[in-house]
């Protein structure tokens, strides 16, 4: 909310959330309380080959959220070093260049 986001796209898996000791519905409840749209789209961390299809599907969802619904989206995964930045780069390449 501090960054004027209107939605959250969570790429973490259930197992990752459990590992971080985050209750399965915690983010959804927090988003509801702060009037943010919450979209869970779990993508297992792994090789790029295994993530390619899921990342493309997530990119379609992100595009819909931004370009069709006008949302400002906070995208996150567990560490923010692979899935989230890759998704953002894919989105920029497909929809902004």
Please render the helix and strand layout as text.
Blueprint (H helix, E strand, L loop, with lengths): L6 E4 L3 H6 L6 H8 L3 E4 L7 H21 L4 E4 L6 H13 L2
Parallel strand pairs: 1-2, 1-3
Helix pairs in contact: 3-4
Oligomer: single chain
Radius of gyration: 13 Å
| Distance from first to last alpha carbon | 28 Å
Mean pLDDT across the residues is 91
Class from helix and strand fractions: alpha/beta
Estimated share of beta-strand residues: 5-15%
Q: Widest sheet: strand order?
A: 2-1-3
Residue share in helix: 40-55%
Query: How many strand elements?
Result: 3
- Summed up, the helix count is 4
Task: Please explain how this structure is put together.
With 97 residues, the chain is of the alpha/beta class. Helix content is 49%, strand content 12%. It has helices spanning 14-19, 26-33, 48-68, 83-95, and strands at 7-10, 37-40, 73-76. A three-stranded parallel beta sheet has the order 2-1-3, with helices on both faces. α3 (48-68) packs across α4 (83-95). It is flat and about 35 Å long. The mean pLDDT is 91.
Q: What structural keywords apply?
A:
flat, 97 residues, single chain, 3-stranded parallel β-sheet, alpha/beta, 4 helices
Give a concise summary.
The protein is of the alpha/beta class. The protein has helices at 14-19, 26-33, 48-68, 83-95; strands at residues 7-10, 37-40, 73-76.
């Amino acid at each position: 909310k501090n960054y004027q986001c209107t939605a959250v796209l969570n790429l973490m898996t259930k197992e990752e959330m459990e590992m971080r000791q985050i209750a399965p519905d915690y983010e959804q409840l927090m988003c509801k309380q702060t009037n943010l749209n919450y979209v869970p789209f779990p993508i297992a961390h792994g090789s790029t080959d295994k993530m390619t299809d899921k990342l493309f599907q997530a990119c379609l969802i992100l595009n819909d959220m931004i370009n069709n619904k006008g949302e400002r989206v906070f995208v996150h995964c567990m560490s923010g070093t692979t899935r989230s930045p890759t998704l953002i780069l894919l989105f920029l390449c497909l929809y902004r260049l």
